[in-house]
Amino acid sequence: MQDNRARIGVIGTGAIGGFYGVMLAQGGHDVHFLLRSEYQAVRDNGITIDSMVLGELKAESVNAYQDVADMPPCDWLLVGAKATSNADLAPIIAAAAAQNAKVILLQNGLNNEEDLRPLLPEHIHLIGGLCYVCLFREGPGVVKHQANGLIDLGYHSGPASTEQAQAIISEAAQMFIGSNVQARPMANVDAARWQKLVWNAAFNGVHVILNAGTKDLLGNPSSRALVESLMAEVVAAAEACGHSMPPDYPAKLLKATEQMPDYYASMYHDWLHKRPMELDRLYGEALRQAAEAGCSMPKTEAMLHMLQYIEDSYLKAK
């Protein structure tokens, strides 16, 4: 019997790619995973999602590949790898993409789609995907999911007309919703990335510099004031760049964060494992855009300098 399901590929099967790929597979979709160092572990044991919300989810029989040349062409591609590697990812995406494939960037930071677009074939539809989820990679093929999972989806560029783009985003949202993942269409990818940056730029770097999770950061008056001031800088920069923010947005984010389990954002795990941090995507690009708009971000700039020193120190020691 012929399988007429759309084929979904996951490039970067870490915490993000592993979680959403397994959710889609559990939802009955044909999912294929491209891996590097964890290939053998996933081939032998599959992928496990240890979720505080959903219980344990295990994909035991996984379509796993170590070389993109071995993957079948995919109609949809989820890119879970960090934006620091986008230049290297472009030829991999192109090799894995079927004609008119839809590529969803599940990445943090600003301008990811804009930078990647010139490196991809024109037939590819490029979609921004913003993940509001608390999770981390606990071990080879094991993802710890603590809370949330919502994805905002917006069409960035490609051969689609406005009407076709809306239909593609609606199809993508339904694909996730049918797999028990909340998803929402969004009209403006750049504005949505700035909106997510309000939380990300504040917490990611402070997790590293103060070596503390969300509970401790919000429970101490000094660290809480630091987080609040960093959020305020990002809001001011976003608005200077023409992207309006929801009313009282930082206060709403802090209230939601207080209701989450104690959480350490992705940059903390990069620091812990001595990997390159997403400094330019989360901080450098925001500082450049803000400066062009005549807006200063002194605390954000100071934090970037501290994080750059930390990263330089451990990368040079390797």
Automatic annotation (TrEMBL):
Which Gene Ontology cellular component annotation is one that this UniProt entry carries?
cytoplasm
- GO BP field: pantothenate biosynthetic process
**Which residue intervals define the domain Ketopantoate reductase C-terminal in the entry?**
188-309
Residue stretches in coiled coil = none
**Keywords per UniProt:** NADP, Oxidoreductase, Pantothenate biosynthesis
Q: Which SUPFAM superfamilies match?
A: 6-phosphogluconate dehydrogenase C-terminal domain-like, NAD(P)-binding Rossmann-fold domains
Q: Which InterPro entries match?
A: 6-PGluconate_DH-like_C_sf, 6PGD_dom2, ApbA, KPA_reductase, KPR-Related, KPR_N, NAD(P)-bd_dom_sf
Whether Nuclease counts among this entry's keywords is: no
Q: Which reaction does it catalyse?
A: (R)-pantoate + NADP(+) = 2-dehydropantoate + NADPH + H(+)
Gene3D superfamilies xref list = N-(1-d-carboxylethyl)-l-norvaline Dehydrogenase, domain 2, NAD(P)-binding Rossmann-like Domain
Query: To which protein family does this belong?
Result: Belongs to the ketopantoate reductase family.
Q: What does this protein do?
A: Catalyzes the NADPH-dependent reduction of ketopantoate into pantoic acid.
The protein's name in its UniProt record? 2-dehydropantoate 2-reductase
**Organism, as annotated:** Halopseudomonas xinjiangensis
